[in-house]
Structure formats: C-alpha cells, structure tokens
C-alpha cells in the first residue's frame, strides 16, 4: 500500500491509533480503494457546501464551549472546544480531495454554505435586542440588515444626525460581522467585526458620493429645459415644506373654499408656515406676481363682503323688512283694539240694560239703583289672574308706569287691567324693566320674577284678545330676518373704512353671542338661536377664510429674495449635497457669488423664468401640487433605474460575504 497518497491528517490519526479520526477517503485507501475517485463539479460543489454548513455548526459549538468555560464549567467547555476542533480537521480532510480536483467549485460551495448558514445571525441578534430593549428600533434594524439600513429616512451624512445614523449602522455591521466570522472561525471574530463595522460606513459614503456626483452633473443642465425647471421648482417647494411636505400635498389636493368665490393660494391651502414664507418671497420679487396676488386678495375680500352685505340687508332691505313688520303689527294691533272696544261696549250695554230692568222693579226687586258709569264699571272687570298680579308690588308699579307712558303719548287708558290697550302698555313697561342699564343692573332672581309676571300677563292678554296673540306671534316671526340683518350690520363694523378690507382679528372677536345680544336687544339671544344654520355656517366660513389668509401673510420665517431669484444655483448646491452650514462660511459665500456672476450668462434667463413660474404656481394649489409631484419622479432612464435598484442587492451581498472571507 502506497502511504504517500494518504493525507497528513490521516497519517497522524493512524499514528495515534484512533481510526475514528481518519477521513472517509483515507479509510477507502487503506482498504485498497482508489485514492482519487472521479470528482465531478456537482460533487465538489456539494462537498464544499456541506463543509461550509458543518464549519458554522462546529463554530457555534466552539463558541458555546468558550462561553461555558468562562462561566466556570471548564471541563465541559474545553471538551466542546476540543471536539469542535477535531470536527473541523475531519471536515477539512474529507473535502481535501474535492478541493484538489475542483478547487473553485469546492471553495465556492464552502463559502455559500457558510454565508447561507450565517444569514439568520442578524435576525437572531435583532430579535434578542428587541426583547431586551424594544425602543432600540434603529439598532435592531441595523442588526437585522448587517448595517445596511436603520429604517426610516436617512439624514445628510455631514450632519449630527447623519453621523449618529452612521454610528448605528457601524455598530450593527460590527456585531453581525463579528458573530458571522466567529461562527466560521472563532479566532477571526475580531477581524470580522472590524470589516463588518467598516463596510456600512464605507458603502454608504460611496453610494452617497456617487449619487451626489451624478445629481451634481445633472443639476448643471436642468435649468436649461422646461422639464428640468419643473423638477427644480418642485424640489424647492418640497424642501420648503420640509417634514410637512406630505401633509402640504394632501391639503393642496383638496383645497377648501370656505367662502364661495374666495379662492385660496397655495400657501393658504397647504397650511405650512415655511410655504407661506416662500409665497411671500416669491411674490415680492416679481411685480406681475405682486399685482396678481393683490388682485386675488381683493377678490377674496369682495367675496367675504358679499356674504356679509347679503346677511345685513345692505341696500335698504332691512328698512323694507322693518316697514312691512311694523305696518302688519300696527294693522293687527288696531284690529285687536277695535275688537276689544266692541267687546267692552257690548258688555256695558248689556249691564246697563240689566240694571235699568232691575230699577223698573222698584222696591219689589230690592236691588240698588246704579248710574250708567257704575254699570260700565261692573261690566268690564279684570280676570282673577290679572287681579292677583296687581297685588304684586312690582306689577303695581308697572301699572303706574303704563298710565304715565300712555299719558305722555296723549292717551287716557283708565284702569289698564280692563282693556287690551292698557295691558299692552303694562307689557311695554315690563319690557323696559327687562333691559337693565349699567346704573340700574338687574339681578338673576329679579329678572326671573319679572319674566314670570310677563309670561302670565301675555297669557291673559291672549285670552282677552286672541287677535292680539296672533299679532304678537306675527311680530316675532317678522322680526327674525330683521334680527339676522342686525347681526350682519354689527359684523360689517369690522370693515376698515380706508380700503374696505375686512379685518380678521376684529371679525373673529365680534362673531359671538354678545354681538347677537347687542344687535337684537335680547339678552338671551345667541348666534345659534338667531341665525339660520346656513347663515351661521357662512359666517364661520368667513372666519376660517380670514384666518387662513392671515396665516399666509404672517406665518413662517422669512425666505430671502435671493433664494427665489437664484433657484438654479440653489438647486446645484442642493443636488451636490453641500450642507447648509458650509454655505454660510465666508469662503463659500465668496466662491458662490463669483460662480453666480459667471453663471448669470448661462442661467440668468432660467432663474427669471423659474421665479416667474414659481410665483404663478403659488397662486394655484393644483399647480403647486403638480410641481411637487413631479419632483418625486426621478427622471432617470429605465436602465439607470434598473441599475439603481440592483445596487442594494450587491451592497447586501458584500455585507454578508466580507466578514466570512475574513474568517477563511
């Protein structure tokens, strides 16, 4: 037997006398088999794959043994490590013939087995971290992806947040790289950690640098054609909206017209302070846009005033309504007085006839003889409720007030309790008392007592003269639109006389129940119980429209006019990834100014065109939304997009492979 063909590992096993350590190939040779059976590509690939999987399993056993040894279980730990080392030697001896026959296929299978078996490492580490520290979501994602991602949006690399994100990526990559390399070869865990931690940082930097270079070159020609300008404007608007960009786009997609005819601008519809600042800057640098915005604001103000004038009955509508109500009330009231007079005259005539008949009986009737005046007094008497009311001190005072009021008008109402006219004057006296003055305030309890007397009086008046009750209800009904107009008149007082502009702050303050009470003269009046739901909704719409317009005029920090006038240069700096903090340095400012002056030859016209388009777009929520949507489109060719989509896969493969190769 030719022992020269037996591997060194098998010879050492034979020398030790332990045949269990001899490889399968060595045993075959000792039994007289062929030393070199046919080794095909598939067999070599499978052998390498098996060794890779076995190596990782033995690596896990080795790490477990090392851990047990450190925990005090030295004997068990050392045995596991020793057994793992023997297992690795055996695997190496078994795969040696395949490597000799087909080294590339065997090595590739081995690497694939190691990578495939260590793939769950990141997920397992992330799962364990999530259970211990659920809030560490970004580090868990870094572990799961080997540092390729931390989830969420990426911050610029040259920033505090960007540095923090890179550190988290590096930590995740180092943990996964070290663990993966350690499973293949425990002694190379530290090397795997270094490579695993470095790759995310280097890879991220390379990808950003490549993207910056491509975007920077592209930004040089974008200002020179319409589609490029569209993307520049869209990016400028999106950058201005910042973290509120999605909310702004949602609002722009559904701009609310609070007042019919008052069309909102983009800043008003978006509701984002920084976009309001950009709108002001864009309008300020372009005379045509300034005039267009002024025309839009005038149209908005006119639409709001139109609603108020309609409510207030401007143009004589309120006066006509009052005249109709008063004429109706007077006619109905006079009818009630005539009916009451006829009632009284009939009652008196009946009583006089009765008394005269009784007087004809003489001593046989044993009845007193009455004069005509006495008969009239007997015929017209107050109801029991009215007599009871007259016993109340305050009501007795109102009776005197009623007589005085009628006398001042030239009328003698006699006993007010016996005629509808007299009762009407008593009601007017109570109405006056229910409207206290600062010098004569009315307390809650006193007011309740007066209201009780008034309700009882009105009830009796309706009984005495149903026509009066109809007149009173008709008066109240005809007063509703007049009260509504009175509220409109109060709100029109918030218009500035100089330019007829409705003032937002004053209008919002006056849109209250206090205004309803002042306009109608009724302390219990509110906007809700005086106005119709539609009227109240329109007034609230004016309030919202004014607030939105005021927001666009004042919200957000000012955007310099230079930013709007030099959109092409700002785009180049943004696409090149120059941090904002560097742009403010004196050297950068000097270079930027020199470049701008030189670039005006090429980009001067483009800057003017874009500033004009921006100002026009900001007058239209839909046009602004379209620009922002266009900015989200890459504008790359299908080939570029396909390559871009494949880069993360190659990047991920590098993450997984490099630490494993370090352990080989």
Structure notes:
By secondary structure, the chain is mainly alpha-helical. It has a domain of 176 residues. The chain has 31 helices and two strands. A two-stranded antiparallel sheet has the order 1-2. Strand 1 and strand 2 form a beta hairpin. Helix 3 packs antiparallel against helix 4, helix 3 crosses helix 5 and helix 10 packs across helix 29. The longest helix is centred in the middle third of the chain and has 44 residues. It is elongated, with a radius of gyration of 49 Å. The two termini are 34 Å apart.
Number of strands: 2
So how many helices? 31
In percent terms, what proportion of residues is strand? under 5%
- Using only CA atoms, what is the Rg? 49 Å
Q: What is the terminal-to-terminal distance? A: 34 Å
Share in helix: over 70%
The major β-sheet equals: 2 strands, antiparallel
Counting helices, strands and paired strands, the structural category is: mainly alpha
**Which strand order spans the largest sheet, edge to edge or round the barrel?**
1-2
- Spans where pLDDT lies below 50 across 5 or more residues: 571-591
Mean pLDDT: 78
Choose one word for the global shape. Answer: elongated
């Amino acid at each position: 037997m030719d022992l020269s063909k037996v591997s060194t590992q098998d010879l050492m096993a034979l020398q030790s006398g332990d045949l269990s350590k001899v490889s399968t190939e060595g045993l075959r040779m000792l039994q007289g088999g062929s030393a070199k059976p046919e080794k095909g590509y598939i067999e070599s690939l499978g052998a390498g794959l098996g060794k890779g999987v076995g190596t990782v399993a033995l690596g896990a056993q080795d790490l477990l043994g090392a851990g047990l040894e450190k925990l005090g279980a030295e004997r068990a730990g050392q045995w596991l490590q020793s057994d793992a080392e023997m297992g690795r030697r055996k695997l190496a001896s078994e795969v040696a013939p395949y490597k000799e026959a087909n080294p590339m296929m065997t090595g590739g299978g081995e690497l694939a087995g190691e990578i495939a078996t260590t793939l769950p490492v990141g997920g397992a580490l992330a799962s364990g971290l999530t259970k211990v520290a659920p809030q560490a979501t970004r580090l868990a994602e870094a572990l799961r992806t080997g540092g390729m991602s931390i989830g969420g949006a990426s911050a610029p690399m040259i920033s505090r947040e960007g540095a923090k994100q890179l550190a988290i990526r590096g930590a995740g990559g180092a943990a996964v790289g070290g663990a993966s390399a350690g499973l293949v070869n425990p002694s190379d865990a530290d090397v795997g950690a270094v490579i695993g931690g470095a790759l995310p940082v280097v890879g991220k930097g390379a990808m950003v640098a490549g993207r910056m270079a491509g975007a920077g070159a592209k930004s040089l020609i974008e200002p020179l054609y319409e589609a490029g300008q569209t993307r520049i404007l869209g990016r400028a608007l999106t950058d201005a909206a910042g973290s509120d960009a999605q909310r702004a786009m949602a609002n722009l997609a559904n701009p609310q017209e609070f007042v019919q005819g008052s069309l909102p601008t983009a800043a008003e519809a978006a509701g984002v302070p920084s976009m309001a600042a950009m709108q002001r800057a864009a309008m300020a640098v372009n005379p045509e846009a300034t005039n267009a915005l002024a025309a839009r604001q005038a149209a908005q103000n006119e639409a709001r005033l139109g609603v108020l004038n309609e409510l207030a009955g401007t143009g004589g509508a309120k006066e006509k309504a009052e005249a109709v109500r008063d004429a109706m009330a007077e006619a109905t009231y006079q009818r009630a007085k005539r009916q009451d007079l006829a009632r009284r005259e009939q009652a008196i005539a009946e009583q006089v006839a009765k008394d005269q008949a009784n007087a004809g009986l003489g001593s046989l009737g044993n009845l007193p003889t009455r004069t005509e005046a006495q008969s009239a007094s007997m015929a017209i008497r107050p109801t029991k409720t009215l007599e009871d009311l007259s016993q109340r001190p305050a009501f007795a005072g109102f009776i005197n007030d009623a007589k005085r009021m009628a006398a001042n008008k030239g009328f003698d109402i006699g006993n007010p309790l016996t005629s509808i006219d007299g009762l009407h004057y008593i009601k007017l006296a109570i109405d006056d008392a229910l409207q206290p003055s600062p010098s004569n305030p009315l307390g809650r309890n006193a007011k309740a007592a007066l209201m009780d007397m008034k309700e009882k009086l009105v009830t009796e008046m309706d009984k005495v003269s149903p026509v009066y009750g109809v007149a009173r209800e008709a008066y109240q009904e005809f007063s509703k639109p007049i009260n509504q107009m009175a509220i409109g008149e109060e709100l029109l007082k918030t218009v500035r006389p100089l330019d007829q502009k409705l003032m937002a702050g004053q209008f919002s303050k006056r849109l209250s129940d206090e205004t309803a009470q002042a306009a109608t003269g009724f302390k219990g009046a509110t906007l809700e119980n005086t106005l119709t739901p539609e009227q109240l909704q329109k007034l609230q719409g004016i309030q919202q429209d004014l607030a939105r317009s005021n927001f666009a005029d004042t919200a957000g920090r000012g955007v310099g006019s230079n930013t709007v006038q030099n959109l092409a240069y700002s785009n180049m700096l943004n696409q090149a990834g120059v941090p904002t903090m560097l742009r403010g340095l004196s050297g950068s400012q000097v270079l930027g100014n020199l470049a701008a002056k030189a670039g005006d030859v090429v980009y001067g016209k483009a800057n003017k065109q874009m500033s004009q388009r921006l100002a026009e777009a900001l007058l239209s929520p839909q046009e602004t939304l379209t620009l922002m949507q266009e900015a989200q489109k890459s504008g790359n060719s299908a080939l570029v997009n396909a390559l871009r989509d494949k880069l993360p896969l190659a990047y991920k493969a590098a993450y997984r492979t490099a630490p494993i190769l370090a352990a080989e």
